[in-house]
Amino acid sequence: MTRQSTILVVEDQAAERRAMASLLETENYAVLTARGRRDAEQLLGDHVDLVICDLRLGQASGVEVLRAWREKWPDAPFVMVTAFGDVDSAVSAMKLGADDFLTKPIHPETLLETIRTLLATRAATATASADAASTATALPANGKRLKRFGRMLAAAESMHELFRMAERAAASAATVLILGESGVGKELLADAIH
Fold first, then answer.
1. CB atoms within 10 A of CB 97
2. What is the pTM of this model?
3. Quick one: three-class SS letters along the chain?
4. Cis? peptide before 77, omega within 30° of 0
5. Which tens digits make up the pLDDT trace of 40-83?
6. What is the CA angle 111-32-1, rounded to 5?
7. Strand 147-149 with 152-154, pairing
8. Cα–Cα distance between 84 and 45 in angstroms, integer?
């Protein structure tokens, strides 16, 4: 029997928090809830597979939760939700590492499909990473660990982050636009994602 996925719901409105938790529990997810940033940060040590967080949490911001969460769990999918959807907020959240951005009111099936997709993507990425780990080079380069993605090999943390983003893109059906100067490896990255 497989382990039940655990989802953390961070929502300052009690009725919305309970409704979302109830929906997720009917789908057999283990649910943790937090009413704000402090409550969520207390759960940083718990094993959580996915986070759903409101952008506005009273005086705090869901972006603060996102930053703290990414430091502790860089690979756990994070869904930002808001009643005040605008392009700038969505872009900011995605740049900081949110995997999706949903605008309230959220249709239950939309939320569940998003969760299923992100958890499946995470599982596929973990499997691919485990397979790649057996062939990845772990030789030090100036004291830094080398990481392989496709035919690329890098020691810089910025490249490791690019590889993590590319792995998420590879596991999804999203269209990807790769920009950069000539000779920086756009084709290698595109081949690895494909």
1. 20
2. 0.65
3. CCCCCEEEEECCCHHHHHHHHHHHHHCCCEEEEECCHHHHHHCCCCCCCEEEEECEECCEEHHHHHHHHHHHCCCCCEEEEECCCCHHHHHHHHHCCCCEEEECCCCHHHHHHHHHHHHHHHHHHHHHHHHHHCCCCCCEECCEECEEECCEEECCHHHHHHHHHHHHHHCCCCCCCCCCCCCCCHHHHHHHHC
4. no
5. 888 866 688 999 999 988 888 888 889 888 888 877 899 999 88
6. 80
7. antiparallel
8. 30
pLDDT in tens, 123-160: 776 665 555 544 444 444 445 566 777 777 777 778 88
Work out the number of other CB atoms within 10 angstroms of the CB of residue 185.
Answer: 17
> Cβ of 33: how many Cβ atoms within 10 Å?
19
